[in-house]
Amino acid sequence: MAADLGELLVPYMPTIRVPRTGDRVFKSECAFSFDSPESEGGLYVCMNTFLGFGREHVERHYRKTGQSVYMHLKRHVKEVPAGGGAIPRRRNGKVFLDLELNRDFNGEDYEYEDEAKLVIFPDHFEIPLPNIEELPALVTIACDAVLNAPSAYKKQEPESWEEEIQVSRHARSLRQLDNGVRIPPSGWKCQKCEMRENLWLNLTDGAVLCGKWFFDGSGGNGHALEHYRETNYPLAVKLDTITPDGADIYSFEEEEAVLDPHVSEHLSHFGIDMLQMQKGTENGHHTDNKPRPRVSEWEVIQESGMKLKEVYGSGYTGIKNLGSSCYLSTVMQVLFSIPDFQRMYVGNLQRIFDYSPLDPTQDFATQMAKLGHGLLSGQYSKPPMKSELIEQVMKEEYKHQQKGISARMLKALVSRGHPEFSSNRQQDAHEFLLHMINLVERNSAGSENPSDVFRFLVEERVQCCQTRRVRYTQRVDYCIQLPAPFEAASNREELLAYEVKRKEAEENMRPPPEPVRARIPFTACLQAFTEPENVPDFWSSALQAKSAGVKTSRFASFPEYLVVQIKKFTFGVDWVPKKLDVVIDVPDFLDLNRLRATGLQAGEEELPDLMPPIVLPEDTRGMLNQLLKTPEIDEAAVMQLAEMGFPLEACRKAVYYTGNMGPEMAFNWIIAHMEEPDFAEPLTLPSMIDPGPSAGDSPTGAALLGNSPPEESIAILTSMGFPRTHSIHALKATNNNLERALDWIFTHPEEEEESDALSDMADTEPNDNAFSNANSHSDSTLSPDGDASGPRVKDGPGRYELFAFISHMGASTMSGHYVCHIKKEGRWVIYNDHKVCLSERPPKDLGYVYFYHRLSSS
């Protein structure tokens, strides 16, 4: 039998590989679906690429690649009978080492058996594993390596090594001064600098002082350390970490975090009862000692305390939380509730899968189609069987839970290379939405782009306050950002009274009063959005000098789906985004037709199309003068090349463009350029004095913009450190005039490709602009020459209906939790990670990002 197996595997031996360092083994999930070893058909792992495939997709991989040998992994899970006392057991104990389970195995509730075997396609010949005696050595080694390899999405880097925290040698004999100091439960501040963050309580004398400063601008002024150097009092506890379970304690003398077994006694010396303290953290991020966000926000948004009815089937599949990944879950749930995204990825599922690359885990369209199918098929959202429910009722227990699907493969792909989204920290859902739109656009070149439904044009009207002249420009955007004006709150008197009470409590070292949430009418947010704003450093081309200017923004087109972000976040003193505690009565129906742009009006006079004067930095000016001064050409090298029979002017250009590096370098330049039509034409240098006719003044200006700028001009700009594409854009926009091109570059630092600008926006915090500035393009983005390659917009009436909103709970975008509510089949549904239920009271007034769809004109 051993010889038979060896002979059977001989033809396939060249295709069987042993996983090397860096190879990822996908043995927990299919590349095209959410099948796993726990699925009915198990999982097939290719013994060459180590990709995993469910039963429905393994044949496709075999036909596409010709790989015939797969390892089939199957996990059989059984529930332990009540009172059986059985211990979860494994047959083949090391088979699925490091396998990420698709369910939570809890204590003695389950027993499971693992099974592995080699399968040879197309005949499906099976070889049970382990089978060391009968298999060739190479196959045995490869199988063992695959079975023991870590799962593909385990952290690639080694686990961070952390030294075990030791008990401080000062803990038992700590001397505490009987000075009558009592620490209040809140309102703390540094005794030396009034700082209210990163505060430490010295356990000897009760001094409350700030911690050290960190490189990112957080922390404090180091007064706690200064106090130790003055007094030698060794131990301090961080105030906002005290809980009934312990606290963060630091020993200045030992220079490390320590344990204090007597911390409860040491804190009670200053009137602190540990059992009454709550740790000021959310998802691992410390907040300050101001009043905590009310628990009611979490309860209201998640509709806690209500018996919500679970829903199952197509469109009602949840997404598992991978650890602070709820921002991704909510955005993807909303995107795949939009027909354009469903049609693009799920409607083309088979075509996308059939034409996927050899590694589908790295293909954007494949992973989007996989997630879309998982959410919309209903395959992973099935209600419990009636027999199962009856049995659970008889046992007076209910264990069935919605499992949801894991977006781990998509998250790894879309966050690759991004410093924030690739981490396990909480992120801003609005920023991730813009990031996803950017990726969709980049991966939709030459095909349908579902993100077109969000794109619209913004008309910006800038007016010189002195001359009253105006300028109109247009740019692309994807979202409007509405401010939350506190001064317009309908309960302003209540807010003022609360502020008075809060200050009194702080001064008298008393607990703060119950927070009051500002109620702001949506009409006030819209009014603040439409008001004119000052233009900083406005240069009036009419006056040819700096002047006061105001800007207003209107919709040049209305998108099919309107995204509205409420600007709830601002920056605290520690530069951490903090959330404004407000409620806004967001309407179900929205009519924005009055905000449609009107363009240049009768009686309005446009500002002249002039550029402001250039003020170059000294180093840049010196470099430019050096580059543009009359060139020195090595005439000896020129004559040496001319004697070889090359045209004299071509020789001069060769020596000039190679920087007088000698006849050999110039000769190479001649060989590379001798087929060019202007090879023998005289050397011409770019001029800073004679710009020639302006493209705007010439009837052929548009045609001039389409010509490629002189290579020598591009070389000068790129030698100054500017990107080549940026330099070409600048020269085209200024009719190849170097001086104006330089100014254009300085005044258009953001002029990149549309998708790049959008990506940059996704990496920034919310700004003060009325629109999202997802694309901060000037009017050049809109193809002023009428080119059809301009941005595609789906314009229509500005009447909308609310169909989804994402809500945030917590103090800042760096912490907390997201859920979303989506209106489906006339009823609101709450998506809270893997749980999907009918909503009883959708908290529309506490949302963060709102999604509207356009109403038909009928």
UniProtKB/TrEMBL annotation:
EC code(s) of this entry: 3.4.19.12
Where Zn(2+) binds, per the record, is at: 190, 193, 210, 223
Domain spans labelled UBP-type: 166-274
Residues of the region (Disordered) are 750-793
Q: A GO molecular-function term, please?
A: cysteine-type deubiquitinase activity
Ranges of Acidic residues composition bias in the record: 750-766
The family database entries (CDD domains) matched by this protein are listed as:
Peptidase_C19B (cd02658), UBA1_UBP13 (cd14384), UBA2_UBP5 (cd14386)
Q: What reaction is this protein's catalytic activity?
A: Thiol-dependent hydrolysis of ester, thioester, amide, peptide and isopeptide bonds formed by the C-terminal Gly of ubiquitin (a 76-residue protein attached to proteins as an intracellular targeting signal)
Give every USP domain span.
317-855
Q: Where is the composition biased (Polar residues)?
A: 767-783
**UBA domain residues:** 632-673, 708-748
The alphabetical list of record keywords is: Autophagy, Hydrolase, Metal-binding, Protease, Repeat, Thiol protease, Ubl conjugation pathway, Zinc, Zinc-finger
A Gene Ontology biological process term? proteolysis
Which residues participate directly in catalysis? 326 (nucleophile), 817 (proton acceptor)
Pfam entry (one): zf-UBP_var
* Cross-referenced InterPro entries: Papain-like_cys_pep_sf, Peptidase_C19_UCH, Ub_carboxyl-term_hydrolase, UBA, UBA-like_sf, Ubiquitinyl_hydrolase, UBP13_Znf-UBP_var, USP
Family classification: Belongs to the peptidase C19 family.
Instruction: Please report the name of this protein according to its UniProt entry.
Output: Ubiquitin carboxyl-terminal hydrolase
